[in-house]
Write a structure and sequence with these properties.
The complex is a heterodimer of chains A (501) and B (76). Chain A is built from eleven helices and 16 strands. With 501 residues, chain A is of the alpha+beta class. Chain B contains two helices and three strands, in the order E-E-H-E-H. Classes of the chains: A alpha+beta (501), B alpha+beta (76).
Chain lengths: 501, 76
Amino acid sequence: MSKRKHESAFVIPHDWEIGDDMRCIRLMWPSSNEWSRLLVSLLYLLTRGREWDKESGTITEVQRIAWAIWDANVPLRACGDSGDGSAIAPPGTIEYRGGSLIVIGEDEMGQVVTDVTYDAATGELIIWFGKCCSTRITLAGADAGVVVYGEPELPDVPPGEDDPITLPEWFACGKATEVIERIEAISRAAWNNRTTPAAMKSAIMAANPGYSVSMVWVLNLYTVGLGLSALEALGDADIFNSEFLKDWKCWLLNRLNNDAQGLDSGTWQGMQSWLIAYPLENEVPDLDVVLGIYVMNWYLAILDVLSRERFNQIMLEGAATQQDCSDCGGIYDTGYGGGETPPLASGYYLSANLAGSAGEILNTDAGWSQLGMFDTAERKIYGVLCQLNVGGPFCTIKRMEWDPAYMGLPVDVSIWGDTSGKLAEEGIHIGIPMITFPDITIAAQLAAQLNYSQAILKGIGVLGTELAVAAQTVGAELDFGDDTFSWSFKEFRWIYKSGSE
Amino acid sequence: MSRGKFLTPVNEPDGSVEVTLILPAGAEWEALARGALALLLSEGNYEQHPDSDITPEEAAYRFVEYLLYTFQGWET
């Protein structure tokens, strides 16, 4: 991620603390929603840590004050207005005008909420991100979820059940799990029928239906099996050690793209090297070194029996099956293996700020970005999946898997965006979304469904305060199928890589 | 200036209006607020919106009058 150096920054004041008196100032301002956004943008600017001179005080403290100022002022109110509806930007009056009004970071970009409409026919709330994209929120019903889409519309279905293409978060996990389970099944069948090569071959074919195996490779496996059997006196090799098999699955998981058709030759060879180097002795107490070598030779022979072609077939067979890879640890990583530059040609990627943790999660492949999140109440990880289209990004938020490594950590979520369509070489337009709801009841329902945090509400600008209040009023639960949870996302960004690090 | 820039508004405002701004009652904070508002006076802090006929120079100029009025009435 590029770092920006400021030529100027605000000096942090030291003459006020939260709880001290505030003062009301009367400003003369252009009477226009659009022009009012400039003032809102200025207020927002104060909440950004990067705008402050870190040498002059504690940035996090001044940010808290800045958010208090924001809360006190947004939505903007005319003088004498109590904020009961006659604010400068009254609900339902803001129109999309083709652009956001502030450029804040050269490395940030995302969606801007430009309007909200209500589809009475379907009972859905439609949040528009410019002219191209919208989010439909079902205001009633158990399986609400959130689907942000451009074209085509994403179905709101559990991953892997009806339309695996739209919900690829299970792909890599499904592939890795299927492969390892089948390897174990075939391996057990071969081991239990190592009386003769013919018996072993029959058992393998029974465990690997519809696919023939070469007797040459079966003989090789049979030979290794004989060696293992002969060495049993050295101790229990625990050939099917569960930790080893899990590690193998996780190794695969972190190297598979959701859209990958299989392992390429380099990864195939890499997996063989990983097997040879695997420290089985860490999992099997008192493992004899020779036995350990034979165990790995056994699995190398199994791979030869299967062949890379068949291995990849099995992998794809598991792609559409929802599996649990939370035992692999870390944020669920199915697509992008890491690094600073995700392979998104469009130049976007997702970033998450997990307060108190390493900070950033990137996971992209073939245009998809995946962000693992977690819920502090139910302690499950949720995912924000986005794909960038010509018309703009579309995202879906789905439940994912829980990783105890992130348990209890607050997650900051906000959605930033850009509607200008301009990707300046030196600056990125980040919008201060200016939306209001025509009906506070609808906003409250939305808030109840999403339980947007204060941060995300702030992120969507003028509406933020309203939704925050509504969320507090209505409650903080989202009925997500069988699970009710408290939404605790706080930071969710589209970040644009300008290419000028 | 490396700080982000404001895109010029697309539409002309419909007159003017007084807006309430609630700030920390501290001299340093109020000075900072005036300084932040003053960012709007510099055309260099704007970027031309492609759909707008209002140039950065014009946008900045508009705020001269508004902020002059505001600052004059700003009792410290």
